[in-house]
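CORE FACILITY INTAKE
Project code: CF-77B
Contact: R.S. (postdoc)
Sample description: multi-component assembly, two entities in total
Requested service: structural model of the whole complex
Turnaround: standard
Below are the sequence entries exactly as provided by the requester. Do not edit them.
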Amino acid sequence: MSQPLPDAALDQLFREARSYSSFLDRDVTDAQIHAVWELMKMGPTSANQLPARLVWCKSAEAKARLAGHAGEKNRSKITGAPVCVILAMDIDFHEQLPWLFPHTDARSWFAGDEEGRKVSAMRNSTLQGGYLILAARALGLDCYPMSGFDNAAVDADFFADEPRWRSNFICSIGYGDPASVFARSPRPEFDTFNRLL
Amino acid sequence: MSQPLPDAALDQLFREARSYSSFLDRDVTDAQIHAVWELMKMGPTSANQLPARLVWCKSAEAKARLAGHAGEKNRSKITGAPVCVILAMDIDFHEQLPWLFPHTDARSWFAGDEEGRKVSAMRNSTLQGGYLILAARALGLDCYPMSGFDNAAVDADFFADEPRWRSNFICSIGYGDPASVFARSPRPEFDTFNRLL
């Protein structure tokens, strides 16, 4: 039976972690990128759908291409980061279920129900996005997640060969520059947004 | 600058954590429920929207009510857990932005755009769902997230007084019974679902 993690870990994951709009000039290695995936892939998704598809823009060329589809204020947060990942989803994720969820015929639950797949892909790829952010933090990295970009343009540019992939959000990752954060926005008390029945 | 968390923490959060379909007979206290919120609320959402609204079903009556709207296989996973939380979203979350994101008029970005709010509420409340699962694990608890229930029936039953709240998914929380887990489903290698540009 697990115990609570030490306070220093809770601080690093939640309490003291911040979204950094600019990053120190320090590389994120390919090995670190792989390590983020190795952690985040372990998080639960419905019927082990794992609908997220990730495109890690690390070269200056890839980051510039992505930044061209972002809102003006977000461009420097992409090009100035060591890496910016496009978190996308495969709306035909069910085609992978025979090997991802082998003990039953989960593919048949979704075949012919594209609207249902879109909802499930959105929900479960976003859950994986939450795991991505916390996996990066657990590995000592900082994040700047963004949804201010042209999803259709990113899809057309990056997924021409994968017409069933849809971008969800993007996230710059690196070592945050402490000078780039402002005071934290308010966080509500339990009773504001919770009910206990 | 943060370092990677110790292996034991990464194991507890990701590598060895599992979804438990049944739980040991051990209470989850109100203080633990509050502690989950105190961690998860710190996670980032777009413009600090924090669209998630949580209803923690802890009494036998509340769990039975919720279980009545769930798929047959999920009912015992609700009634048999110490607590099952409904993670919902407020599709009028923008009304809270004047105090949640006080330094600019973010409310105006969403006013009059209900479709855009629905997408944003879904994305950001689900991110908060990812934080919920990992916050619970960080506190030594186990989870069983579920989307197999009648969302409209839950909304009508639990949110009659909050017609702008929509259920997203539900999650049982407690101390998992090791006898209730099977072998882990496959997890893909990096190259299967990732590209590095």
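Facility notes:
- The longest strand of chain A covers residues 165-174.
- Strands of chain A lie at 52-57, 83-90, 142-146, 165-174, 194-196.
Invoice: internal transfer
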